[in-house]
Amino acid sequence: MAQISDTMLIDLPLIVLLQAVDEYPSKTTPALAPHMKLVPTILCGGAGSRLWPVSRELHPKPFIRLADGESLLQKAFLRGAMLDGVVEVMTVTNRELFFKTEDEYREVNKVKRATSFVLEPFGRNTAPAIAAAALQVQKMQGDDAIMLVLAADHLIADQAAFAKAVAAAATLAETGKLVTFGIQPEAPETGYGYIEAEGSRVLRFVEKPDLDKAKAYVESGRYLWNSGMFCFSVTAMLHAMEKYCPEVLAATRACMEKSRFAEGRGVAQLELDSETFLLAPDISIDYAVMEKSDQVAVVACNIGWSDIGSWSAIGDLKAPDADGNRVQGNALLHESTDCYVQSNGRMVGVVGVRDLIIIDTPDALLVADRKRAQDVKHIYAGLKAMGHESYKLHRTVHRPWGTYTVLEEGKQFKIKRIEVKPGASLSLQMHHHRSEHWIVVNGMAKVVNGEQDLLLATNESTYIPAGHRHRLENPGVIDLVMIEVQSGEYLGEDDIVRFQDVYGRA
User: Fold this and answer.
1) Helix, strand, coil share (%) of the chain residues, nearest 5
2) Which of 63-77, 287-301, 428-442 has the lowest mean pLDDT?
3) I need a surface site. Which of 76, 134, 275, 362 has the fewest CB within 10 A?
4) Is the peptide bond before 465 cis (omega within 30 degrees of 0)?
5) CB–CB of 177/235 below 8 Å?
6) Helix or strand run (H / E) with residue 249
7) Distances (CA, A) of 218 to 92, 184, 185, 205, 368
8) CB 233, CB 173: distance < 8 Å
9) Strand partners for 456
């Protein structure tokens, strides 16, 4: 692999969680064997379309902030990072979310756990993602490293029980087993796949059943929910892929030979080559390996697991009032029952309805029958097919340097609030079709405007005509906040020519 040099969040509180959520392991938690090198590997992909309008393509479900201030992704990171024997935390995500993910980890990584990233140009399902991660872990940590594959968007309420399950899984993984985590079913759930097991031996995997089959599975005592979490040694997984899905492994290896790798400041980054990654089969690890191998084991556990798969599931995490309503944010209900209402800012009035989900965000409103919460994905798909921005972006958009919020826009004008982190800068750039007026409202701005170098303090401004090279930098130690007024015949975000960019964007 060629070497290169060193090198976003909407606070939408959703739910009130139990105090037990994500408590760190106690001193009595079973430890891994001293020689084990554990690499929690977080898969952070997908759009979370069933949680629109909060979840968007560039603000997917893992980045949703919960009532305690942490995102699902941060919880997943801490869940893995605080385990015994961890040598690094790896994350498989896409290039667009890389800087946003780094910011998320930086907030909570108090113990300075080493992090690494595998950056996909686009999703090819979990088998190529895990293949790339396993090959990278093999290179960095050796054949015997134990990988713990975690989803970025699950909740686990009992961290101590989780750590115990991981210790059991790692012990099995050392014997060459490919271990999955089976959740003790609480009810005949039709939204999960099942594992039929006999002790730690997996008999078969079962697709999402209908209600009658789900009831029979639960009553039999032989079935567990398939959590989508795995534990295995690098050697065992790569050998299994060589046997059961050699085309996936070969395509991923070829891709990695042409991919870029960077390492520095406690962060390693592998950016997968887009042309060769496209040749990797689009297939899940379940279909590619787990359902074929005779070396699969399961650890049955009761860890307070939830995949937070719909607004109905989120609503169920909050205690209802006397009318069965669950409210997060600003809402007033009258003669309404069994509703879940979430509002980020605006007051929502609800009168004379029942069994509704109402989710209000600054630029989109969802109203849905609670029984049809899974069908929200069709709205997301429709918006994407239309090319409507609300499937992809919030009004507040995260960039490596900070955020911008669209305050107002009309024909040939757009007004933004821009916030730049201390020490951060935008690219040296130019626009063909729009002019910009920058007004500083907080902090200090260092500006390149054509041939001029300027320092702008609060309440000072500059005008940048179309065609002028320009750059904005925050030289201070507090956030720079400014108002940008754009005017011109075309105001799309793609009207940009970058001459210099510290973030490696085109």
Assistant:
1) 25, 35, 40
2) 63-77
3) 275
4) no
5) no
6) helix 246-257
7) 34, 9, 7, 14, 30
8) yes
9) 445
CA–CA distance, 68 with 17 (Å, rounded to integer) = 8
**Cβ within 8 Å of residue 478, ≥6 positions away:** 422, 442, 443
Rounded to the nearest 10°, the torsion over CA 410, 412, 415, 416 is 110
| Among candidate residues 251, 25, 5, the one with its CA nearest the CA of residue 124 | 251
Distance in angstroms (rounded) separating the CA atoms of residues 168 and 323: 44
pLDDT exceeds cutoff 50 at 9: no
For 35-306, the fitting CATH number among 3.40.50.1820, 3.90.550.10, 1.20.1600.10, 3.20.20.70 is 3.90.550.10
**Which amino acid is present at 155?**
L
Residue indicated by tokens 């991923």: 252
Q: Are 304 and 156 in contact (CB under 8 A)?
A: yes
Structure token pair of residue 335: 């003669």
Please state which of the ranges 20-24, 219-223, 345-349 shows the lowest mean pLDDT: 20-24
Mean pLDDT of 57-84: 91
Given a contact cutoff of 8 angstroms between Cβ atoms, the answer to whether 25 and 83 are in contact is yes
Where are the strands (E) in 260-363, listed by range?
Answer: 260-264, 267-271, 296-301, 305-306, 326-334, 340-351, 356-361
Residue with tokens 């031996």: 201
Least confident range of 40-49, 141-150, 281-290, 421-430: 40-49
For domain 396-500, give the CATH superfamily. Answer: Jelly Rolls (2.60.120.10)
One-letter amino acid for residue 237 of the chain:
M
- Between 34-38, 224-228, 401-405, the lowest mean confidence (pLDDT) is in 34-38
Q: In the β-sheet with 452-456, what is the strand arrangement from edge to edge?
A: 452-456, 445-449, 470-473, 428-430, 497-500
All structural domains of the chain with their residue ranges: 35-306, 319-389, 396-500
**pLDDT digits 0-9 by tens, 218-264:** 999 999 999 999 999 999 999 999 999 999 999 999 999 999 998 87
Pairing of strands 452-456, 445-449: antiparallel
Q: What does the alpha-carbon distance between residue 274 and residue 7 come to, in Å, rounded to a whole number?
A: 20
**Residues, the chain, total?**
506
> Cα dihedral angle (79, 84, 85, 91), rounded to 10 degrees?
0
Q: Which of 46, 203, 190 is nearest to 129 (CA)?
A: 46
Question: Measuring CA to CA, which residue among 482, 486, 488, 492 is closest to residue 460?
Answer: 482
Residue type, 293: S
What's the pTM value of the predicted model, to 2 decimals?
Answer: 0.83
The DSSP element (H or E) to which 81 belongs, if any, is helix 72-81
Confidence of residue 476 (pLDDT cuts 50, 70, 90): very high
Residues 6+ away with beta carbon under 8 Å from 139: none
